Amino acid sequence: MNRTSSRTRIGAAVLVGLAGTTAWAEGPCDIYSAANTPCVAAHSTTRALYASYSGNLYQVRRASDKTTKDVGLLATGGVANSATQDAFCTGTTCTISLIYDQTPNKNDLTKGPGGGFPVADLEANAITAKIKLNGRTVYGVYSTGAFEPSAGVGYRNNATKGMATGDQAESIYMVAGGKHYNQWCCFDYGNAETNTKDDGPATMEALYFGQSTQWGKGSGTGPWVMGDLEDGVFAGQSFAAPASNTSLNFDYVTGMLKGNSGNSWALKAGNAQSGVLTTMYSGPRPTGYSPMKKQGAIVLGIGGDNSHTAEGTFFEGCIVSGVASDATDAAVQANIVAAGYGSATTGIADRFATDLPQPSIRWNPSNSSSAVDFTLANASKVRLRVVDLNGREIARPLDGVLQAGAHQARWTTAGMHPGIYSVVMEVEGQGTWSRSFIQVR
Hints:
By secondary structure, the chain is mainly beta. The chain folds into two domains: 5-351, Sandwich (Jelly Rolls); 355-440, Immunoglobulin-like (Sandwich). The protein has helices at residues 28-34, 82-88, 326-339; strands at residues 5-10, 13-18, 21-24, 39-44, 58-62, 68-71, 94-99, 110-111, 124-125, 130-133, 136-139, 141-143, 155-157, 170-177, 188-192, 205-210, 224-228, 233-234, 252-259, 265-271, 278-283, 297-300, 312-321, 360-362, 369-376, 380-387, 393-402, 405-412, 419-427, 431-440. The strands form seven sheets. Strands 4, 12, 14, 19, 20, 21 and 23 form a seven-stranded antiparallel sheet that branches. Strands 8-13-22-15-16-17-18 form a seven-stranded antiparallel sheet, with no helix packed on it. A four-stranded antiparallel sheet has the order 6-5-7-9, with helices on one face.
């Protein structure tokens, strides 16, 4: 077949159009490779991360018969062929069962096993994170969180090839949905323990996005890009909030972590749709985190011990051998912007604001009792918990099937230690709502 092509320079990337398809003359991993900091893992459900990549991006599993289907590209080096998924999943639901590594290392990701959090993870709903990439429909990885004994969404590979171990240097980036997050740990992408356990400080190095203040935090109200280094999520050198690590208010976020050998590391972030990256922190590691003791597993959407209470949406990310230069970081960001995330659409919305009940808290602050009022559109199984800021369950006012309509769940706060607690509501088939707080005096 005779095909004509056109090339348009967009930032640091070349966009190539072939018979209605979209491809790039270079991808993030081409940029890293040219700078002698090659990708050792490259994951995306939206596009190729090498210009020469022609393989599959991910696999979906059909609920009706549990069969699977690979989803590839519209063209070599291009965007996902989402029509494959749409046709395969017609009349049923699908989950993302596997995310292929585009590097020769084949560090593919499947749902995480039980570990420190003993319940194994779930596969992500395949259609929830539907967006446009350069005008083409694609799907991201929409992660929902849950407290034990329920399971959250998460992916892992404990037997990788080429990953940094010990104090070896690495760089990590990901593109995440900027409006989908919560306050729990840990929506991570990066390097973790190979035994799915918490092996102590410095045994992991992963990029985190969210609003967690369980350890460290950035300035403002969040969300932030931070580093999960195990037994601590850090925005800088300590748990104190550095003024430089500012809150991010974008539909799509680029986050970067640069983990050098020796006592230094850095965080960068920016708008994945426009502009350049900002250095959120660059300097010494926290006390007790040098030298690093990286183990080389890969996690997505979960912590090193399989903690799966976080929420987030992942579109693409790479893990790189060595620390990339600032010029390389800038070129990768330009390539991401040129990819056209969210063109002709808005970003992934906070699902809690639309799909789930909108509880209101009564008697808050409280010194005797509190209650949650909410309305269900359909009969549903509902579990409601009250947890402290470390995620420990303090009370479970509700656990059962409720009919459609208005409801109230009430519990006593007498005897609870003064402080701030979170109300966590899980609605079967819809996800988890965990944004209301009560103050006990």
